[in-house]
């Protein structure tokens, strides 16, 4: 939890710094506004919105395929154990659990444990060899989920780049006097979501890498982070679009 907290704080600091557009990083407190800069800003922010919607659609597809992959996780030791059970058909004699052990693989498969229990003395060595480097794998949607995740990350980076490189909107003194101080604005809400969906995007690859060894536990954490990030980005787009 401490790592998560520190990462979120860092993301908030990063988003606060980089959320300021480039002209304000200069020494001139009131950068000059030109038609070209305003046109460039409008063009980049329009593409930023389109890229954001594309990213959101890809993120949704990634999460949905990830849920399917998570539900189809199985231990590779059970897969190999099923082959060993087929090589020992005598285990099926008067034992209905043999067919249960050979049922389609899922996270609750018992093939490896059943193989050990049928003959602990002779099968213990093979059992512990299978379990020594336990790995989890998804029967469905695993490759599609990975490809979608890479596409989502790429579009996310493009979306962020379009916002970062767009010239600033310059608030004039007349506007400030007329509008007065603003406690809330769509832009504020839009930027407030950045640390959440950015932290989520950065955490997801690491969580995905853990699934191979940790299985459903890491997959569940990845689902939570993925949907939290998707929710934050949905809010960020809704407040700025409608």
Which descriptors would you attach to this protein?
membrane; mainly alpha; 2% strand; two-stranded antiparallel sheet; 11 helices; 242 residues; transmembrane; 72% helix
Mind explaining what this structure looks like?
The protein has 242 residues and is mainly alpha-helical. The protein has helices spanning 2-18, 35-71, 76-86, 97-101, 111-118, 120-132, 142-164, 173-179, 186-192, 194-214, 216-241, and strands at 73-75, 136-138. The protein folds into 2 domains: 2-23 and 32-72 and 140-170 and 181-241, no CATH class; 74-138, no CATH class. Helix content is 72%, strand content 2%. It has a two-stranded antiparallel ribbon with strand order 1-2. It is rod-shaped. The model is unreliable at 1-6, 12-28 and 172-177 (pLDDT under 50). Keywords: Membrane, Transmembrane, Transmembrane helix. The chain crosses the membrane at residues 148-167, 187-204, 225-241.
